[in-house]
Design a protein that fits this description.
The complex is a heterotrimer of chains A (97), B (311) and C (91). By secondary structure, chain B is mainly α. Chain B contains 11 helices and no strands. Classes of the chains: A mainly alpha (97), B mainly alpha (311), C mainly alpha (91).
Chain lengths: 97, 311, 91
Amino acid sequence: MSLLLDLFTIVAVSGGLFFFLAGTVGLLRFPDTLTRLHALTKADNLGLGLIVLGLLPQCPDIVSALKLVAIWALVQLGGATASQLIAEFARRGGGER
Amino acid sequence: MSLAVDLVMVLLILTAAVWTILARDRRDAVIAFIVLGLLLSLVWMRLLAVDVALTEAAVGGGATGLVLLRACARLLPVEADGALPGLRLQVAVGVLCAVVGACLAAVILSPPEPAPSLAPAVAAHMEDVGLKNPVTVVLLAYRALDTLLEKVVLVLGLIGVWALAPDLFWGGRPASLRAAVPSGTLTFLARVLPPIGVLIGIYLVWNGADHPGGTFQGGTVLAAMWLLVMMADLGDPPETRALRLRRLVAVGPALFIAVGLAGFGMADGFLSYPPGYAKPIIVAVEVALALSIAVILGLMVAGPAAKEPDQ
Amino acid sequence: MAEFLFAAAAIVLVLTGLGLARMLWGPSPADRMMAAQLLGTGGGAIAVLVAIAGDMTAVLDIALTLALLAAFAAVALTLGEPGSKRRGGEE
């Protein structure tokens, strides 16, 4: 059982790392501000989400597990509103000089 | 591998720090400074200084960026008038910063061997205070005077900010923090986040007695929530003459000083706590300090009064 | 398991660190802010990985604080917008 859980952790965390890779590559390679923003949100949602999911079986106690979920939920809220604000900012031309 | 991680961190920090200085646009420099704060928080985590990492995460993430970007916005109309600092002033500021940096580097690069440490002494007497977080024990018991003076400095800093207001505006409201263009997203965030943020702020203060956390971290989080509400135009900055506001500013340091003076009668002298009551006293002082810190930091970001007080 | 999680934290650090190139290239402040945003999320990921791997639950509070304040830098960016905020604020 514990082997299975460990395997789950390794797969999920590796998946999270992949989305961080995707976010970074997109942020560096995509051609304009809004597409880069699109890449960034993948790291917010899936990168951190999968890492948190993978860590849940490894939590020493229930409070830590709840905190992990709270961290993920807060990053969802913060990441979604932040990218919306950055997009509004960029579209108003605040991004350009 | 740990050496490789350290090298990566050093490289990233140097990149952010150098870019903060070299960036031509002021706003770009502030963004690099925010990045630097995030990286420093990770470094403190790596050094196992969780309390400091928490402070850096709260102050760097919630307060510094706001205060600096607001300063940028304030400078725009000044710059439009062409009132840029002259070359001589720029060079003088650069030289002074370099001197301060060099002095700090000299101190840090030549530590005494072995490094002096009072950690064993603190660990041996932890039980006398009744708290489990050694950082809080040092800050509020053994070095309480330093902490008290630090909070008084915050109050003096706020008075300094207020003093920048023209006579006409004294006691009035600071300029509104509301965002340039109304944004539904921002309003949404300012309605959803503060209840959670206030809870986390209180948790950090309460937790500080026995685990990493404490007044400054909690107070900064509370201040950030208040600022978010003001930026989303759900509440204006209060009049700086309001009595209730000024009481909140003073309550933390005042209670701390009162406790300190009570030490003459009830214990061994200024800022010593009667045996057995150390923990409740420290927690009460921490709560009051967190309130004051939250209000002071919020008001510092809001800035000096910019309107005539209401009649 | 702990070693794998520490290694994962190191990889997140390197990846989000590479993202800082966007902070240098820009071209717009929005692009630069995205690098900070990615580093903030990455910092949260690093903190949760280290907290569980090293069994230091206090480190979770760092991640919690970073997550709570995740949007603040982006919110602050709108403060620095030229021509509107200050004049709007003075009335």
